[in-house]
Amino acid sequence: MDPLVAALKVAGSGLGAQSERLRIVSENLANAQSTGNTPGADPYRRKTVSFAAELDRATGASTVEIASIGHDQTAFPLEFQPGNEAADAAGFVKMPNVNVIIEMADMTEANRSYEANLQVVKQARELISMTIDLMRNQ
Questions:
Q1: How far apart, in whole angstroms, are the C-alpha atoms of residue 53 and residue 114?
Q2: Domain interval for residue 94
Q3: Which neighbouring-strand residues pair with 78?
Q4: How confident is the model over 82-107, as a mean pLDDT?
Q5: NCBIfam families in the record, alphabetically (predicted)?
Q6: Number of domains in the chain
Q7: How far apart are CA 84 and CA 80, in angstroms?
């Protein structure tokens, strides 16, 4: 298989994986304050993404795939909010285990990885186009 096509395949899989990662991070950020509806109920649990390398038999290249979307099992922090409908008898509310700073760092990393893969796609397309032009001029 053509190395440029293989590069496109690898970069394309990276784009898909990072796009899904950005979706999960966005979901986590959107639910960073989502508590349960009843006293003592669990709030939103942070989602995590795991990647896996997959061999593309057509190109012989190693691509990235989403292995799983899991849930962060760290403890829920408690906040004293006696007026909240999700507060227990002592006035404490279980808050989501989402750390906004970590999510923003994950978003930045995923965004940069997405941009890098997009640049690879652009470069490979340009090289393929240049190769076709060279073949036409012979």
A1: 17
A2: 3-136
A3: 94
A4: 94
A5: FlgC
A6: 1
A7: 9
